[in-house]
């Protein structure tokens, strides 16, 4: 994925296992590979900064068991920085130097997306919703009845004018304010299955 930012072109790449396919030069490296010699499930995020088509810096983030790809909602670029999700960790990297400013783990399992809210960010983890500062400090967190992944097509997290609407795995719906306080809790109601007596089925 390529993004134009000021006078720079920022390219974000993600690669599973075959790291050499995308890495030609490594100015900065953050290595979270497993110490196990036979570990084969590893991946990387690769951030390249170019000016006038010429690469001026890059940073490579290696992680083991990282399933996070690069999507429009897994990074934010502003204020000469990029915040990018890699598994359950968020990295803040300076532009254009590609210098790591901070890194921090949030959800215990993984982070799915990051969204801007005023001068802060909302992070959708698998277990928790976080509001964090640009410096990586947790302002509040919110949990539901189930994980924050919905297989039925509902948007798990929508930032509205004055609130945040959430759907969990079972499509339970929640509305919270920007301070993390719950406004609405709408459990999903499953219709009770009508069961016939076995003698009526064959009667």
Could you explain how this protein is built, in words?
The protein is an all-beta fold. It folds into 2 domains: 1-105, Lipocalin (Beta Barrel), CATH 2.40.128; 108-203, Thrombin, subunit H. It is 2% helix and 49% strand. The chain contains 1 helix and 17 strands. It has one helix at residues 198-201; strands spanning 2-5, 8-16, 28-32, 42-51, 54-64, 75-78, 81-86, 89-94, 100-105, 111-117, 120-125, 129-132, 138-142, 157-159, 164-167, 173-176, 182-186. The strands form 4 sheets. The protein has a 5-stranded mixed sheet with strand order 1-2-4-5-3, with no helix packed on it. A 4-stranded antiparallel sheet has the order 6-7-8-9, with no helix packed on it. The protein has a 4-stranded antiparallel sheet with strand order 10-11-12-13, with no helix packed on it. It is elongated and about 60 Å long. The relative contact order is 0.10.
